[in-house]
Model the fold of this input.
Amino acid sequence: MYSNIKAGVAKRDECSIKQTSQTASEVTKEKETDISRYFENASRTIFDEIVPSKKDDLPDVQRSSMSRIPNFELLGDHSSEFLKIDTLLDSKRFDHSAMSDTHRDVWIPSDQTRKVLRSIATSTTGSNSLEREHLTMPGLAIQGDMPDLIKSTAIHFLGEDENIHRNVLTASDVTQDERGLRNLIQAGCYKAAINLSGKLLAVYAQGYGKINQPSKHTPHSLQLWYTRLALLAKLRHIDVLENESKPFGNLDKPDMYFTFYPDLYGTRPGSMASFSFRLLLAEIPLYCGKPKQALDNLYKVLATVNQIIVNFNTGFSGDGSRITVNAVEQEDAVRLWKGRRSRVLISIINCAVNMKNYILAIDILEQLCDSPDWFPEQLDALKSSIGRLHLFLGDVATAEKLLIKEHKQDHTPTVREWMDKGLMAVARNSFQEAYNCFKAAATLDPSNIALINNMAVCLLYTGQLKESVRLYESAIKENPVKSLQEPILLNVCSAYELHTTHCEQPKLHLLRQLNRYKGDAVDIQCLKLAL
Done:
């Protein structure tokens, strides 16, 4: 998920800029299970709003190895979404832990699905038998466990003795339940988590070979699928992701609703699938090289969300049924679904940026800025994002108006403001000035690895290759767990190749560090070793 945009702002064909953007506050909290907090670097990575990616991410590694020029990053997180939802949607405003499940789970089914559900609700329990076309029938697309390639590569290059230093969790090392799944994700063992999710889904008769075989669904089984597909997206296992997500469609089959199981849930309304799962499925075509389909999906989700908001505003239930809602619940429900609408809009922005449709992204961002619901720092973050998009377009003058603001003399610039100043300096090819800006930001946020990366790239462009390599190595030595990220490893290996033709040994040292400090999720190809 580390897609690059050609850096018109740097005016160099070799240099590209990571598609991320810094914003201000924390993630929306909902009652549905949130796995985002368990991802590495103790930073929230919006797995409730999975990041748009692109199918050719892996070949980017090879392309970068040809240019051999390290990349700038826009901020301190190594995921590739342009605008991070978790940092814009403030928890104090969108915390709905006390929200009624009825309002949280609401969704508007299609007319055909509504007809089937109405038939089930008015029939004797057990008297209805549905045709297969009305059923969601998922299953695993792969048999067996995903291998730990870091372990096998370390053994190949460093020998069997290195294996004694490999101390990472596997699916069999944790409890065989949701807690074990969280422990694996927290440890950065995403492949092991995928392996465990497969075992847990087999309990629901949804294991290998079960695609197109009828089975029952529960909120728990769907949450397992959401977690599994999110991890597959994170690791860029595109073929498996596409095959395993396909049976879910748009989550509109009758068996995705509580009403389908009256013996278990009575007359409880709503969708068993979380809103996060719905958003993830809408975005998956983007990972599979079908961005227009993803954009269409997201706009369909947006249309339904808008209709739900309209329904609540009229004082009735979100699905359009004539069930009255009291004023307090109405206010909470509208606030919840407006927050979800923002999540969809930001997903559309990320999708548009991935398609390099910056005009659409800017247009939606400007619409978001018109909302009165943002805190001042959130509004600044949105405007900063618009400025960075103008940098992507090569419109440096407009970007400067948005990114560089006049402040009082006693104003202390924030990390984001220093970052914006640094990026503007990059746009002017003033790499020493950019280095000073990134260094000032790093003084305020020493643990921000992207700032260290940007400083190292500036050193490279000012001809200080040795100092650039030394800065990378110092960061990795000081905090290997946080610094051993794919973009950083790719950049430092590119710097090694520029520095010397004898670069295999320092690369093998990085492999040794990976083997000792990281889980199984890092793509070993970022070390650019001859496998």
